[in-house]
Amino acid sequence: GETMKKIPMLLFVFLCLSFQVFATDKIGTIKNWGKIEVELKSYFFKDNEAGAVFLLRNTTDNEDKISSFLQLQVTNDEGDKAEIGFGTEGIKCDGAIPPFGVLKCVVAVVFPVSSKEATYRIGSGAEVKAVYFRIKNE
Q1: Whether pLDDT at 74 is above 70
Q2: Cβ neighbours of residue 47 under 8 Å, at least 6 residues apart?
Q3: pTM (two decimals)
Q4: Cβ atoms of residues 65 and 98 within 8 Å
Q5: In which order are the strands placed within the sheet that holds 72-76?
Q6: What is the β-pairing status of strands 117-122 and 131-136?
Q7: Where are the alpha helices (DSSP H) in 2-105?
Q8: CB contact set of 104 (below 8 Å; sequence gap of 6+)
Q9: Over the stretch 83-124, which tens digit does the pLDDT of each residue have?
Q10: Residues 44, 51: contact at Cβ < 8 Å?
Q11: According to the model, what pLDDT value does residue 20 have?
Q12: Are the beta carbons of 110 and 45 closer than 8 angstroms?
């Protein structure tokens, strides 16, 4: 009866929601990390390297800060976590984000193996929920 008519619609909604969760992000995608807008500007994959450029826009009149060591993590589709330490080559994502200003965040990392995709986490999730960008090597 009536319940059987609703099942296809519920299944459709579930599949759409699932797709949203697992969809990959494209250039121009903007996500909100607290009061900071994070925009994916570009990305690359080459052998076992992966990289992305983000613009961090401060939407307030208070200075904010980012620390790549504390607030950045990159993993690949195999679950490998890229090494990010103080002064890691290829990482330029540290410092102040001026009031109503922008900071360019460059993240180039090396994985143990060639990767089909990389997930970038920006934020530690302690005070403000972190944002995730999932990028596929296409």
Answers
A1: yes
A2: 114
A3: 0.80
A4: no
A5: 72-76, 117-122, 131-136
A6: antiparallel
A7: 2-22, 68-71
A8: 41, 53, 54, 55, 56, 92
A9: 876 666 788 999 999 999 999 999 999 999 898 999 999 987
A10: yes
A11: 45
A12: no
